[in-house]
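Q: Structure tokens for this one, please.
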Amino acid sequence: MTATTPAPTRWLLRLVGWIADLRLAIGLLVLIAVASGVGTAIPQQESSDFYHQRYDSQPWLGVVDGSGLLRLQLDHVYSSTWFLALLAWLGLALLLCSWRRQWPALRASLRWIDYRSPRQLSKLSVAETLDSGDPHAQLDRLDQQLRARGWAVQRQNGRLAARRGVLGRVGPLLVHAGMVVLMLGAAWGALAGQRLERFLAPGHELELLNSRGQTQLTVALDQFAIQRDPAGRPEQFTSQLRLLPPAPALGEPPPPAVAKSISVNHPLRYHGITLYQADWSLAAVNLQLGRSPVLQLPLQPFPQLGEQVWGLVLPTRPDGSEPVLLSLSSEQGPVEVFGPDASSLGRLVPGGSPLEVRGLPIRVESVLPASGILLKRDPGVPLVYTGFAIALVGGGLSLLATRQLWAIADVGQGQLHVAGLCNRNLTAFAQDLPKLLATISRADDGRG
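A: Here is the predicted structure, written as tokens:
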């Protein structure tokens, strides 16, 4: 940069140099890692009431309450403005670093450098000199040895240049490219992805719509089962699903439904949509009041009674008076019956005998559990996987050492001058070069 460079150009070059600084990229990676940790620690994409109920009384880290979490967009870290800005900043830094450093280094490594004098070779990292009665013959044998070992050789009059492992120079570029593609996929998934979590009772279905309001997929729950341990604690949840593709155009036969099952840690991927078995709940209770037909009444959670307690308030008189509370924590029962004063009036077992409550016989026929299904559509997943694969390939190639070697036959002095460079593990290269030259010397002694 000279004094005649215009001030705006100098300012732009300084800005580009600052953005492409390796220390800045490392700092951005640390910030992104910390933000990802925050997104893991705080439940994501819940309702605003959830954050107020959870964090207003007990602020996160003792500092940030529910309102603060919402203002800082910590309820949706991965799609927040500041997180996407960090990704864009890091992507720009990697692109500028590749443009300013990695690409020129790759181009330089692809150019053949022609050293013409022994003095030039003596200044390189590793240099050796062999005394010989026929330097040209030794140069020929060195040429043969290098080609046999996979080196690329360019021969000139009385000298040669050779290189090996140039592909390793592509590694850093691929790592940067892979990270940029990975971040593009992550940003695309955060902006264009869909996430829907619902509790679905057997016999009901759920539609997933696209941005235009068109049905992408209909999920019907045929059966939901909860496997419990001997102590009654839930161990596994399994949902038997029917997947109904969108209705075809007029005149076309409807596509067949696809029967699948999901369980915890065994999601289902279908046409770009992933279905997870996320949770469980109790949806409804089938009751018989006196001689009435079986009534299906919805249950609602009662967090004030416990973490997993559901129930309903049931009047025992036709005018809606004298209500009782029916509560339960499992689809297996029992159903506890409480009066208005919280006194216990008895318990009911699903499928068991009726219980007379204030002159009204009540029988619980069954309890209907609900499956908590999480549907996620992430269009950026292919880009994320592609970027990760590119970065892995680039990281593997970066481990390859790029070696360069030059040799000049000095007939007047009766010597062969050999020198080289290596970007990785120079010590090993310095040990290998004398061994290579020793094979040439032995061949020369045998001929002599």
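A few notes: Residues 7-105 form one domain. The first strand starts at residue 126 and ends at 131.
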